[in-house]
Specification:
Strand content: 15-25%
Number of domains: 1
Number of strands: 4
Shape: globular
Radius of gyration: 18 Å
């Protein structure tokens, strides 16, 4: 919940937003980037991580760096690895642990991609 202040008055208002993605192919013959937009990650949780969290959004852009395969893989998997590792508890606990959780989610996504690439 964000608070807006108008002079002496302060009121809590729910933040609403719209998200969109636009891509533009550069010098390469095909678009190699990928993106993920999840307005509310809570739909992926069996049990919400906290009663304090009402919405948990995820927005990501993945640069293809010479190929779309890894970018597309990460766009499909990273947020799911994040959900599976997400800390439980209040906002303070989540804030404390989120850096490690993000690192672990990226690492797991990378390991899965490399494993799949070796098998193919």
């Amino acid at each position: 919940m964000f608070y807006l202040t108008y002079g002496e008055y302060q009121s809590a208002v729910p933040v609403r937003y719209l998200a969109a993605a636009v891509g533009r192919k550069g010098e390469r013959p095909e678009m190699q980037d990928a993106h993920t937009i999840v307005e509310n990650l809570l739909i992926y949780f069996r049990v919400p991580p906290s009663n304090e969290v009402q919405r948990l959004s995820f927005f990501a852009v993945f640069d293809g760096h010479g190929g779309a395969r890894a970018a597309e893989f990460a766009a499909k998997r990273l947020h799911l690895h994040l959900v599976s590792r997400f800390p439980r508890g209040g906002v303070k606990q989540i804030d404390k642990d989120i850096r490690r959780v993000l690192y672990d989610a990226y690492k797991k996504t990378d390991e899965d991609f490399l494993r799949e690439a070796i098998q193919q």
